[in-house]
Design goal:
The protein has about 140 residues and is an alpha+beta fold. The chain contains four helices and five strands, in the order αββαβαββα. It has helices spanning about 5-15, 55-65, 90-100, 120-125, and strands spanning about 25-30, 35-40, 70-80, 105-110, 115-120. The protein has a five-stranded mixed beta sheet with strand order 2-1-3-4-5, sandwiched between helices. Strand 3, helix 3 (about 90-100) and strand 4 (about 105-110) form a beta-alpha-beta unit. Helix 2 packs parallel to helix 3. Bound molecules: tetrahydrodeoxyuridine. Tetrahydrodeoxyuridine (THU) binds near residues 19, 22 and 42.
């Protein structure tokens, strides 16, 4: 998978963000092991805490569709209505959700409108608490 294509999918998804409270629009594109792309954007709530991040919308959509094997995720974010101009790393909750379904060596691609920054999920969430601690071989 060409990295820029996954980033372009995240940029496109970002245009579907519903973020009237933060005015910060995020898009994510999750690539499956067999080459499908599931996207998401952040969706906010007037009571704030029900807000869901773009990464979780993409991940839960994919998992709900039966996907379990993932190859990469691209994430972009910034002021709504403007082009992205800085990197948008995933929040801690989304890192934990990604760790539920993705291997530690999975690439996480960030984009500031100019350069791609690549990290592994394990770099973003070292010493992960995951299903292995619960001794469940799901
Ligand atoms: N947000 C995401 O969608 N993903 C992240 O990883 C960081 C934050 C959203 C949540 C909220 O709608 C807005 O960005 C500002 O925090």
């Amino acid at each position: 998978m060409e990295k820029q294509r996954l980033i372009d999918a995240a940029l496109d998804a970002r245009s579907h963000s519903y973020c009237p409270y933060s005015d910060f629009a995020v898009g994510a594109a999750l690539l499956t092991a067999d080459g499908k792309i599931y996207t998401g954007a952040n969706i906010e709530s007037a009571s704030y805490t029900p807000t869901v991040c773009a990464e979780r919308v993409a991940t839960f959509t994919a998992v709900h569709a039966g996907e379990r094997e993932f190859a990469a995720i691209a994430i972009v974010g910034g002021k709504a209505g403007e082009a992205v101009s800085d990197f948008c790393p995933p929040c801690g909750v989304c890192r934990q959700v990604l760790a539920e379904f993705c291997e530690g060596d999975m690439p996480v691609l960030l984009y500031d409108g100019n350069e791609i920054r690549e990290r592994t999920l394990a770099e973003l969430l070292p010493d992960t608490f995951d299903k292995s601690q619960l001794k469940r071989g799901i």
